[in-house]
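task queued by scheduler; priority normal; single chain, no ligands, no partner chains; default sampling; output format set to C-alpha cells
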Amino acid sequence: MTDLISVVVPYHNNKLGLVSTLINLQSQLVPPDRIVIIDTSKDKSGLPITKQFTTNNIPIILEVAEVQIYQVWNKGIELSPDHNVVFINDDLLMPVNFIDNIKTMIKTNSALCYIPLTPTRDFSSNEVEKFSWYSPVIKRLDQISTTNWMSGFCFCLTEECLKEVGIFDLNYKIWFGDTDYETRIIKKAIELKKFGILRMDQTFVFHYGGKSYKYQNKTVQKIIDKDRQYFISKYKKT
C-alpha cells in the first residue's frame, strides 16, 4: 500500500481560486507528491496561472480538456497511477497539515475513502466564516467517524479504492456522479468487510460553495435533471 498523494484540481473559470489553491497546496507542511490540474476553461488560462505560481518543489501536470467534471476526475486518475488521489475544487481553503493528516489516515486506518469536515453541501458564501490554518494532528479514534457522504468538492480515494471500485460513471455529466460513486464505495466496503468512508472530524476544509459552475443556469438544470433520472433508474431495483 502506497502513501503517495496526487491532488487533482478541476479548473474552469475561477482564476483567483486556482491561484489560492496552488499556493495552498505548495505551502503544505507535508506536500502532495503530485498536483494534476485539468483545465476546462474556454480561454486556456490555467497554464499561465500555473506557470506564474509554481515553485518547482512539487511535480505539476496540467492538461487542457473541455470536458465535464466526471471526465475530469477520470483523467486525473489516469494521470495518477499508483497514487492515492485527492480530488478538490478550486474554491477551498485547506489547513497546512491537510495532506499530512490524510497520509496519517492512510497509514493508520484502513478505508476506501477519506474526507475532511466541511460545510454542508448546500452552503455558499463569499466570505470565510470558520477556518483555521492548522488542524489537530490525528492521534485518537474520537477524531474520526464513519459517514455515508463523500463530499464531492473534497475527498480522497485510496489506491485500493480505485482498484476495487473503479472510475467514475460517465453517463453522469454534472451531478450525481459522486453520489453514485459513494454508493459503490459503501457496497464494496461491505464486500471487503472494511470501512468505506471515514471523516477526519477535526480537519476542517472551508468550501466557498459553487464558485466555478453556474448551477442555477436553465441549461445546466436540464442536464442535472437528466443526471437525476439516470441515477434513479440505475438504483431503483437495489
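post-processing summary
- The first helix runs from residue 15 to 26.
- Residues 5-235 form a domain with the Spore Coat Polysaccharide Biosynthesis Protein SpsA; Chain A fold (CATH 3.90.550.10).
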